[in-house]
Amino acid sequence: MATGRILDEYQILYITKGAGFFESDAASRRVGEGTVMLLFPGVRHVYKPDFEVGWTEYWVGCRGAYVDNLIAQGFISATRPVLDIGLDNRVLDLFSRILDLVRDQEPLYQIRAGSLILALMAEILSSVRKASLSSSSERLVQKAKFFMEEHIYGEINLPAVCEALGVSPSHLNEVFKAYTAMTPYQYFISIKIQKAKELLTEGDPVVKGIAYRLGFKDEYYFSRLFKLKTGVSPSKWSVSAPIPVDSGS
């Protein structure tokens, strides 16, 4: 590489519009909308937007043991400096919050910005994992969701879900969590609680009956879960739930 620069810190750059190129000792490729470039201390690199279109970028610099640990654990590497995550609102929001803190420089802004940079790296890595999911993985998640919706009134039997889909529990858990940020069990619980809210709002006051109908053998366990997810007990939900308003003429 004839030209370039070497940094003494890590930098994270996110391109949200436009296109250009990136080159380092380990990579040389086109970059564009939805690309993250990771710049490593001591590694020479060059990047430049196309003259005709330019690009819009967000960037932050950082130092610290946390990023060093990500390298040590194999999550990021100078041999993989370019990550394709697409346009991610959560990543953009974290960049904006970090930049706001640095601009305003309120008390302890360095500590607060540092914690947001950790969240930014976690979100980027999560987005990479989601973006790498194949179409077959997406179909698997959709089939799992459909199966659970179909069996919402049955017991939470994840082995049966896996058997119906022809996959192992560990594989389903890995793919489902990467795609939805929830485990299959958490998702199954969430749709059951949502259905319970609907039943209670529709006027079914018998908590025990709803619990059993939704596959919970223990109504007290169901009530604890419901309160944990909604903030109120099932017996109080129908009273506190908003009343639909008829906007028709």
Report the span from N to C terminus. Answer: 71 Å
CATH class group of the largest domain: Mainly Beta
Q: Stretches where pLDDT falls below 50 for ≥5 residues?
A: 243-249
Structural class: alpha+beta
**How many beta-strand runs?**
6
Number of domains: 2
CATH architecture of the largest domain: Sandwich
Mean pLDDT, rounded to whole units?
A: 87
CATH superfamily of the largest domain: Regulatory protein AraC
Q: Could you tell me the strand content as a percent range? A: 15-25%
Order of helices and strands: EEEEEHEHHHHHHHHH
The residue fraction in helices comes out at 40-55%
CATH topology of the largest domain: Jelly Rolls
Number of helices: 10
What's the main sheet like?
Answer: 6 strands, antiparallel
- The shape is elongated
The value of Rg in angstroms is 24 Å
Structure explained in plain terms:
There is one protein chain. The chain is an alpha+beta fold and 249 residues long. The protein folds into two domains: 10-131, Jelly Rolls (Sandwich); 135-240, Homeodomain-like (Arc Repressor Mutant, subunit A). Helices cover 51% and strands 16% of the residues. It has ten helices and six strands. The chain has helices spanning 65-72, 89-104, 109-131, 135-150, 158-165, 169-180, 184-201, 207-213, 219-230, 234-240; strands spanning 10-24, 28-32, 35-39, 45-49, 55-62, 82-84. Strands 1, 2, 3, 4, 5 and 6 form a six-stranded antiparallel sheet that branches. Strand 1 and strand 2 form a beta hairpin. Helix 4 crosses helix 5. The model is unreliable at 243-249 (pLDDT under 50).
